[in-house]
Amino acid sequence: MLPTYLPGDRLLVRRRGRRLRAGDAVVYADPVDPERHVVGRVIDVKDRRQPTVAGDNPSRGSASRDDLRLEHRLILGRVVARLSGVERPGRRTYS
To answer: Using H for helix, E for strand and C for coil, what is the string for the chain?
Structure first.
């Protein structure tokens, strides 16, 4: 599966707002390297304190290969829009 977001894409991220739902794209701090921010997709929210996140690109990153149960404090926000990146000009897409 191809990644939804590519390097160079600019993302509009909402830090607060509605509760997370399955299918939401989120930005979170990598549990191994908190300085690194990762984009993933919520696949399960049964436990609001620890949603399960998976990556969109199976060839990159640990969250892409495995489902990752995140502590809610690591989630920085929900992606609400992708603004056109340098590598991929075009119209904006909204989540």
So the answer is: CCCCCCCCCEEEEECCCCCCCCCCEEEEECCCCCCCEEEEEEEECCCCCCCEEECCCCCCCHHHHCCEECCHHHEEEEEEEEECCCCCCCCCEEC
